[in-house]
TrEMBL record:
Gene3D superfamilies per the UniProt record, alphabetical: Periplasmic binding protein-like II
Organism: Streptomyces malaysiensis
InterPro entries, per database record: Ectoine_EhuB (IPR014337), Solute-binding_3/MltF_N (IPR001638)
Keyword line: Signal
GO BP: ectoine transmembrane transport
Record bears the keyword Signal: yes
Coiled coil: none
Protein name: Uncharacterized protein
SMART domains, per the entry: PBPb (SM00062)
Molecular functions per Gene Ontology: ectoine binding
Keyword Signal carried by entry: yes
C-alpha cells in the first residue's frame, strides 16, 4: 500500500470509508483503551472514536493492542490508522505525529496505604519523606517525580495500575503515582481494604504546571482525517455528548478542556 499523498492532506479518510473499518492502536490501559473481561473493545478513547468514525462514514472500529511505547512507531509504520489511547499531547510527540485537540485534561493522584500514614500529597512529599515510589511503564509521572528530585533508579516501575495497587497493599511501595482517573478507578474496582486514592493534584515541571491533556494521534500527512475528526469532536464537546460518553470511565466535568493541540505542542 503506497503512502498517502502528503501534498493534499492525505487520502486515508476516503480509504477508510471504502473499507468501512478503521484500525485503532490501544495500549491496554484502563480507563483509556482496553479489551474488557467480555472480550469487548472499550475505554474512554475507543468509545469516542466509535461515535466519531461512524459519523465520518466508517462504521467499524478494530482494536490493535500494543505496548504504550510502540504506539507511535506502530502508527508511523501503518500497523494501525489512529492512536486511540488517551495519549498525552507534548512537543516531543508532536514532532512525530499530529494530534486531534485533546478530549480530556488530567491531574495526578496517588495510591497510598489506608489513612495515608506518610501524608503523601505530591511528588515533593515523596522526595522529602524518602518514600518508596512506584509508577507505570512509560508514565508521564516518572518525569514529574524526577523533577521533584526522585531518581528513576529509586522508583519501582510496574506494568500497570493494578500492579501498583498490589505493591502498595503488600508494602513493596509506599505510593503509586498515576492519573487521578486511573488510580481512583483501580482502588474502587478492587474495593481495596488496605489502600486508598489521594485527592487529585497538579504536577509541575520546572516550576510550571505540566498540563496532562490527551488526544488521538494521526500520521503527519493525514491532516484531512485529523481535521474532520476535530470538527466532530468539537460538536460533541459543545453539546455535552463527550462528557456523557466518558463519564462511565470515571471522567467528570473537571477533566473537560478547551485547550488545543496547537497550544500543547508549542
Amino acid at each position: 500500500m503506497s503512502a498517502s499523498g502528503t501534498e493534499d492532506g492525505g487520502n486515508l479518510l476516503e480509504r477508510l470509508r471504502s473499507q468501512g473499518t478503521v484500525r485503532l492502536g490501544i495500549a491496554g490501559e484502563i480507563p483509556f483503551g482496553y479489551i474488557d473481561k467480555n472480550g469487548e473493545f472499550t475505554g474512554e478513547a475507543p468509545e469516542i472514536a466509535k461515535v466519531i468514525f461512524k459519523r465520518l462514514g466508517v462504521p467499524k472500529v478494530q482494536p490493535v493492542p500494543t505496548e504504550f511505547g510502540s504506539l507511535i512507531p506502530g502508527l508511523r509504520s501503518q500497523q494501525f490508522d489512529v492512536v486511540s489511547a488517551g495519549m498525552y499531547i507534548n512537543p516531543e510527540r508532536c514532532a512525530q505525529v499530529i494530534f486531534s485537540d485533546p478530549d480530556y485534561r488530567m491531574r495526578d493522584a496517588f495510591i497510598v496505604r489506608k489513612g495515608n500514614p506518610k501524608n503523601l500529597h505530591n511528588y515533593e512529599d515523596i522526595f522529602k519523606k524518602k518514600a518508596k515510589m512506584a509508577t507505570g511503564t512509560a508514565y508521564a509521572e516518572i518525569g514529574y517525580a524526577e523533577d521533584a528530585g526522585i531518581k528513576q533508579s529509586d522508583m519501582l516501575i510496574l506494568p500497570d495500575q493494578l500492579a501498583g495497587l498490589l505493591a502498595v497493599e503488600q508494602g513493596r511501595a509506599d505510593v503509586f503515582a498515576g492519573t487521578t482517573v486511573t488510580v481512583h478507578n483501580v482502588v474502587k474496582q478492587r474495593n481495596s481494604q488496605r489502600a486508598e486514592a489521594t485527592e487529585p493534584f497538579q504536577a509541575y515541571v520546572d516550576g510550571k504546571p505540566d498540563i496532562g491533556a490527551g488526544g488521538f494521534a494521526f500520521r503527519p500527512e493525514e491532516t484531512k482525517l485529523r481535521d474532520a475528526f476535530n470538527v466532530e469532536l468539537h460538536k460533541m464537546k459543545k453539546s455535552g455528548e463527550l462528557l456523557r460518553i466518558v463519564r462511565p470511565f470515571g471522567f467528570t466535568e473537571e477533566e473537560m478542556t478547551d485547550l488545543t493541540a496547537k497550544e500543547l505542542c508549542s
